[in-house]
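Continuing the series of single-chain predictions for the mutant panel. This is the parent chain; the variants come on the following pages.
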Amino acid sequence: MKEEKTIRQLKKEAMLLKIKGYYNMTKSELAEVISRRRMELSKKIRELDTMEIDELRKLSKEFDLKVPWKSARSTFVKKIKALFENLKLNGELEEQKFEKNKLPSQNVSSFETQRTQNVNKAPETVISLPVSYFKDKFCGLEVNPNWIHFYWDFSPKNLEIIKEHSNLVLRVYDVTYIEFNGINAHRTFEMEIDEKMKKYYVFVPQSGADYIAEIGYKENNRFVPLLRSNLVSTPPSSAKIAQMELWMDLRSKRKFTEMSPSRKVLRIEKLVGFASMPTSGFKSGGGSFFILSGRRGS
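Parent structure:
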């Protein structure tokens, strides 16, 4: 009774027969495709003597036969016949060339059983990132012209201060074209946040602008900052508009330029907070969000 081939032997045979995609096939699939391939090669053996030289060259190239391209037709036929005879009789060609690719000396069934056990085995320990690194850090990253991502962490000292004050506040300042001193922002937005929050995606109304954020608390209606972020510059959403205005004195016909009048400094504006991304057309990467509503404080 003929011994049934293992999946390893079938894969090696498929490799020698130049079958594509054999490595991901099951044992039954390999047996079927090898059978079809052998029938195809048997047909080619019968047609070798009538094949054109170009077909013989293509066939020798497919099986990596080292036959010079300009060799005679009879040379190609002889080499290909020798190859097919070896494949037909032995099922493998020059096995010693593939010894270096051998799997460890153990039967395939035990190897597959061990691999299955390793996959199903649950990990003993689960490594997870710490909730906090207990260092003061406040960073801002521009996402697109109207979205900024802020994330932060607190040191133990600031955590103690936060516990004493329940009204933790996140402020965002529009500081475009100014040296910010804490009170001279074009617009100021703020919102109360939870001390457990670690990040926020902020929708800013003005693209192509510079923003700075602060986290702090309020004491006697006075904002006390704890952390300040880096400067975040959002890209413009449209073509740049010139900041200088060109004027002409009609009497002297003299041309001169003048800066556009700056916007009036507004009071602190309130924000509308969201625990998830709003569904009114805004899209971003996730996390918690709040939108600068643009509504002025009462």
